[in-house]
Amino acid sequence: MRKLFAGIAVLLLGSGLAVSGWAQDTALYGAHGISPQAVRQGQLGSCYFHATIAALAKTAPGTLRNAIRQNPNGGYKVHFFSGPDEAVYQSDVDYGRAHGYDRSEGTWVAVLMRAYAQRVLRQSLVVAIQKSDVIPVFIEPMAISWLDGSDTLLVAYDRAIRSVVSQDGSMDQYALKQSLATELHTEGIPTSEAQALVGFLDEKGFFAVLAQTVRENGEVFGAYKDLGQGGIPVRVMEAFMGQGKVNAGMTNDSQQAMEQLRRFRAGGVAMVAGTKPTAPNAQIAGASWWVASHCYTVMSYDDAAQTVTLRNPWGGHPGPDGTFTLPLSVYLDGYESYTYTQ
User: How much is the pLDDT for 185?
Assistant: First the structure.
């Protein structure tokens, strides 16, 4: 037995796969690696994200795996099809997991989730700056350039604002100014420079405008807050697969919906479907799988049997892992839309 373990150790070291690296890989990807069954949504309203990641895990696991790289400075770098890579810090992943935002096996979904949330927040802040009338015109390009290229500013802003905004959108401006200066310093910006930046923003009335914006627009509320407010699968698919490679349709065009299911059955297509806001009949309303306005991963389609198999990203409802099969007619009745890669 001792020789067997020694032989395994030699093979691992000889192949360049150190035991510590294997342990890290298992912690990141879990026992079953990148698979739909590993994906489990948490308490946020992020079904559109989790169902889509499960769909991509089924058809393009390599794309998701290649998106995650170790960051030499700690944590991870997540690469999207376009736009800047997002630096994901372990502390932010731990924050999301501790608050029940993701319950997936391993932490790979939580890493992708955090990166996508930062991406959306970054894009939202750029738009907010462009629309702001309190930031001088000559500073706007510099601010946008810094935001586009700075993980430090984005992460500091997100950590600061999530600690001072209540769920009803009320913001403690004084606490935010103090917290932002602290977070900027923590991320390596000298205290004097951090305080000067915060003071400049305060002088220009930025925090007063931001308080109003936060009440009206959850997208600048913080990365996790934004992600939990809902979204559309198209944007998630495009982030990893690219624009022009994703499309959507409505099930009320039953002929087109069936044609898409046949294309899906042929392979290489990731697909999710969203239920209607209300159940069309009492039978569906009482079904164990039914959740209104919810996104599901399409797992398979049997053209001969005329059945569709789907999975709830909750990882349950129905049990044991949320996977269930419906007659095609019930699928067309209960679901409103679908999104797919081309």
Answer: 77
Say which residue the tokens 């026992």 belong to. Answer: 31
Structure confidence at residue 328 (pLDDT): 98
Stretches where the chain sits below pLDDT 70 are: 1-24, 124-154, 161-163, 165-171, 187, 200-201, 203-230
Q: pTM value?
A: 0.75
| Residues making up the chain, counted from first to last | 342
CATH at 259: 3.90.70.10
**Amino acid at the residue 30:** G
Cα maximum dimension of the chain = 72
Q: Is residue 8 part of a domain?
A: no
Residue 206 in domain: yes
Look up the domain containing 307 and give its range.
Answer: 244-341
3-state secondary structure of 252: coil
Check whether residue 198 and residue 328 sit in a common domain: no
- By DSSP bridging, strand 307-311 and strand 271-275 are unpaired
Collapsing DSSP states into helix, strand and coil, what is residue 78? strand
pLDDT at 107: 96
Are 255 and 308 contained in the same domain?
yes
Kindly state the helix (H) or strand (E) to which residue 309 belongs, with its residue range: strand 307-311
